[in-house]
Amino acid sequence: MSDQALSGFKVIDLTHYITGPFCTKLLADYGAEVIKIERPCVGDITRRLGPFWQDEPDYEKSGLFLHLNTNKKSITLNLKSETGKEILMKLVEGADALVENFAPGTLAKLDIDYQRLTRINPKLVMTSISNFGQNGPYRDFKASELVLYGMGGAMYMCGLPEREPQKLAGTFLLYQAGIAAANATVAGLLVSESQDEGQYIDVAITEAIASGVDRLHTNLNAYSFNREIQPRFAIAPVYAPGTGAYPCKDGYVNLVLMTRQYLERTKNLLGHPEFLDDPKWEDPTMPSNPELRDEFIVYYLNWLADKTKQEVVELAEQNNILGAPLNTMEDLFADHHLKARETLVEIEHPIVSRLEYASRPFRMSETPWQVNRPAPLLGEHNQEIYSELGYSIKEQITLSTLGII
User: Residue 107's domain is classified under what CATH number?
Assistant: First the structure.
């Protein structure tokens, strides 16, 4: 097995839900030994969130948990007990980093905050992830992703101009913050290795959103330079008629049509319909003329109606027109390009059998991404890890009976 980029680093994972686990997943996927600490008998909250394999709710069958925790080890540990805290200290002593996403102040109340941990391991890199950061007026506020998206500034610019702002579907912002936390942790590890000095990293999800690329950079600059608030706008209809997502026989396609540069190519694509020979289509104001736009779209929709996505895209390629299908998940899993690049990989799991997962976000030639193990069962690595810490099997049974592990 080849060494990976983060091989040799040990990370203690005190995270739950999405942002923190995605951060530590990225570290584990590139070789770090990530020990995920979960509550005895309960585990990470995502174990109770669907979708579940074969629609059977079970701690070991959550698709979200399986995705977020590949390549990690799992142990159970009660951090509210004094013995549990002592065990954590032993783990920290041999670790390079610790990542947590409890509410600010939680670890301090348990007397296992950064100050105590660094007395045990001065080189420790500790990353704390929270909604609004470890200090400031909003520090103790609770929030959902909807709240964070709204407060981070991106939501105001998302949606149709005549309607209220909208949040993009899903929880992509939490993943975006997880990427930021993983980058920060790796940077901290580089400093720790080169300077023998640990550090504390404070990741606020709202700041990850506010500094992100989701519609924000241009709008942040506009306000910074001239205090201008950018309006919401619908890109495709204003840009050019036919540009954007439109329905065809088996789904949707997204082509670039009827720009001034693409007018002749559009004619070729559509088989040279006579109505496009009218000089009005070459008028610079054509893209913003609603009557012309409607006239073109009526014809375009009829042209698309009896063609499949593949047929439309092939015709677009033949006429040098930018375009692509809007893939469903079924399309994505069947895509020959993704298969050729092994973007989706099969991972064997003892409960849910063999499933396909998204693999690496980037390739490294000498220290590759690879699957070392599937997402762990709850407490799967208790015996391994606690034996390494010096606890006998008899002591482990006692600790389990007491609810400590």
Answer: 3.40.50.10540
